[in-house]
Amino acid sequence: MNPEFVVSIGDRSFDPLQAQSDDEPDAGPPKAWIVQVARPLTADQVTRLRSTFDLRLTEYVPNLAYIERLSPDTVPELREDPAIRAVVPFDGGLSVSPQAHTTPRDDDDIAGFTILAFPDTDLDAARSALADLGGEQITALDATMSGGAKSIRLNLSVDRLEAVGALPFVLWVEPVPTIVDDHPEGGAALQPGTAGMLAGIWEHGLHGEEQVIGILDNGPADLHHCYFVDGEGLPPGPGHRKIIQVRNAHKQDPGPHATFVAGCAAGDDVGAPGSSPCRGGAYGAKLVLGNRMDLTIFDEAPEPMASTLFAELSAAHAAGAVIHSNSWHATTPGGGHATYDVTASDVDSFTWQNEDCLVLGSSGNSGEQQGPPGTAKNAVCVSAATSDPAAPALGDGAAGPTADGRVKPDLMVVGCGVQSALNGTDCGTGPRAACASSYATPLAAAAAALVRQYFTEGFHPTGSATPGDRLVPSGALLKAVLLHAAVPVDPAAAYPSDSTGWGAVRLAECLALDPTSPRRLQVRDLRNAAGLTTGQESTHPVEVLDGADRLKATLVWTEPPPAVPGVGTATVNNLDLVVTGPDGTRYLGNVMSAARSVPGGDGPDAVNPVETVIVDAPAVGPWTVTVVATQVNVGNPGQGFALVISGAIPAEPSAGPGRT
Fold first, then answer.
1. Is the pTM of this model over 0.70?
2. Candidates 438, 474, 497, 654; catalytic one
3. What is the pLDDT of residue 304?
4. Which residue among the candidates 15, 182, 217, 410 is catalytic per the annotation?
5. Helix (H, G, I), strand (E, B) or coil at 313
6. Which of 456, 491, 507 is the last residue of a domain?
7. Contact 43, 534 (CB under 8 A)
8. Catalytic annotation on 217?
9. Given 456, 474, 503, which residue is the final one in a domain?
């Protein structure tokens, strides 16, 4: 098989052309087909194929394939089109995750499963069909109006999986994962809590004002704690000092983990605002609180209910949250490196549809398996750094990479020696576990809130709030700045690292707040509406004024999920970062040795939606930073991106449609 055209779904890998039959398809209603193209489609080809064959070309499966609903009489003509390589049925055997058969079940062989349904599915009819196969506690959600999927949660006998996979509305079936809170039990704090790598930003008036962070945890925070109470006694809502909304369908009591985590993000003592030594990293921000237990099936009249992560993120966003913190992870099938599943797909679908949003997830506890939401492509996966910002080291966090080879975790933020709000106390603070990625994640979300405030208040590029420079950043730009602000923990090791990602965040080293510093920041924030299509390039000239400082460029893009979670690689679109010096030397993104870029390499990174170039002692003179759209298989209508460049370079206003 030619690896360029191999399609991998579940435990099956095949070349669609070799699987294609010359027989005429049987007549009947439309059904699902895999349509593979001969090469990445240009924008003109996409337009023509949609017009001629009514293709969607949005449900992508690597390599170079799409899942489409086709009438049988369309197939022969489509196969003859010069842009098409093969058209083969998407049969029911591709719809069931291989791990579905081995998932833990009860004594009656019953286990919980999630089904993704095709967009044209009649959910009432689907529920009836599943009930006929013995499905129990069947719940269905339709998120298509907000850009999500139709999904069904149910309990089912494992021996009925093949029958379920054969149902015409079923796109994918996988086991319901176990969800883990990412904090080791017990242990004394190493030292008094600190926001560590965030603290250098507060002195410039950036505390999170007008920013909203969503927290999804194992219950609500303790709203009677002084970090969250409203001084006027108002209930949660837009006018509340701290809490805009609480979603808690399970009606759980406040929990210690949820209270501590919310305090890390934005807790602030109502009686001493801005002065509590254990206040949150973005203590001026507000919070939207949700209960991750609502992701599980629960009994509610007149029928069982369950939410999805897409629905929870959407609800938080509707309440004002654009930064979403999750101090937990879901286990994924296989028991090894984290695979791409429905939870990861929910994150990527949500952020693809809501370009302003950023989702963060903890990497897990050391020694555990990673899992989503942090391992989603567009998410920021966070591990805990020790409390010494001068010499940070890994304190807690599961190592990557993901099963398809993407770098996770993305970065580290202080998560050791942290003190925060204690549940069941009026205003008590203290430690819990000595180190936890659970505590690093809300502090990373706080860092993202400070970065967002930096742009929305017009601190870029002058370093002081300037109304004319206000910019509403994309989630990709927030992620790019966090990664750009990360410094390698062990420069001699492979970089980016499977255990520490792109390094430990030091925001003050990235954000241009000191007008006397020669190190300046340039950013480009391009939304999908003006994004690139296959074969296009975006070129950015940069003048290096002094070679004494390093030149660094970071590219991030937010991309859609694949059509089926169980694909061999989750990457849909591929942008490449190329940095060219005055003498023509070219550096490719993520081609590194000892944490610095080197010329050459085996080729561009085709897996990670993050690419970095770091050049020490760059030559003075004109450099060029180029973003190349190698493959844009699904655009909206194009693929946007965020680009961050720093060094001894001129300060320039941001470019992009987010400016107000």
1. yes
2. 438
3. 67
4. 217
5. helix
6. 456
7. yes
8. yes
9. 456
Q: What is the CATH number of the domain that holds 447?
A: 3.40.50.200
Domain housing 371: 181-456
Q: pLDDT per residue over 543-566, tens digit each?
A: 999 999 999 999 999 999 999 999
Annotated catalytic residue, options 183, 207, 225, 257: 257
Residue 644 lies in a domain: no
Q: Same structural domain for residues 440 and 427?
A: yes
Rounded (to 5) percent helix, strand, coil in the chain: 20, 30, 50
- Amino acid, res. 409: P
Whether the CB-CB separation of 643 and 484 falls below 8 Å is answered with no
Establish whether 438 is a catalytic residue.
yes
Clarify whether residues 260 and 148 are in a common domain.
no
Residues 6+ apart with CB under 8 A from 235: none
Tokens of residue 406, six digits: 């993407």
> Is 257 marked active-site?
yes
Q: Which of 376, 379, 382 is nearest to 404 (CA)?
A: 376
Looking at the structure, do residues 371 and 252 belong to the same domain, yes or no? yes
> Do 140 and 283 belong to one domain?
no
pLDDT band at 432 (very low <50, low <70, confident <90, very high): confident
Mean pLDDT for the chain?
A: 91
Contacts of range 185-189, beta carbons closer than 8 Å, 24 or more positions apart: 185/433, 186/433, 187/433, 187/434, 187/435, 188/431, 188/434, 189/417, 189/418, 189/419, 189/430, 189/431, 189/434
What 3-state DSSP class applies to 290? strand
Does the residue 593 lie in any domain? no
3-state secondary structure of 284: coil
Q: In 130-150, which positions are buried (b, 16+ CB within 10 angstroms) versus exposed (e)?
A: beeeebebbbbbebeebebbb
**Which pLDDT tens digit goes with each residue over 399-413?**
999 999 999 999 999
| Measured distance CA(28)–CA(331) in Å, rounded | 40
Tell whether 104 and 241 lie within a shared domain: no
